[in-house]
Known about the structure:
The protein is mostly helical and 124 residues long. It has 2 domains: 1-70; 72-124, no CATH class. 77% of the residues lie in helices and 3% in strands. The chain has 3 helices and 2 strands, in the order H-H-H-E-E. It has a two-stranded antiparallel sheet. The radius of gyration is 40 Å and the shape is rod-shaped. It starts with a helix and ends in an 11-residue tail after the last strand. Mean pLDDT is 81; it is low at 108-114.
Amino acid sequence: LISAIEDKLKRLVMEKLEDKKHELVQHRESLTEVLEKLREQESELDRNLKLVECKTEELQRSAEELQERGPIDVDEAIVATTPLSNQILNVYADIGHRGQTQETRHGEIGGQEARAGPTPRVFN
Length: 124
């Protein structure tokens, strides 16, 4: 009788141990997967960090070059893509410049500022 009880207890203990072993194996596999994903993310973050550092250095070099060049001439910065567009741009800039010149020359007329701007030209 004692031998039968010992055998039954051994079987129950072995079953419980097998169940726990199976659970531990499953948890180990899931932890291994999580660890692998974390390593992949870490390597991706390292790549992105290096890329950001390279871009930051590139931007710093560009900023230094722009500072060395001095102020940018707005007329040279705006470039039209076609000759006709370039002509239109030049005429528009000329009209704006003349309008500013007229306002500066006339100053105040009768206590009021001269507000009339340049008359736009019509090209046929």
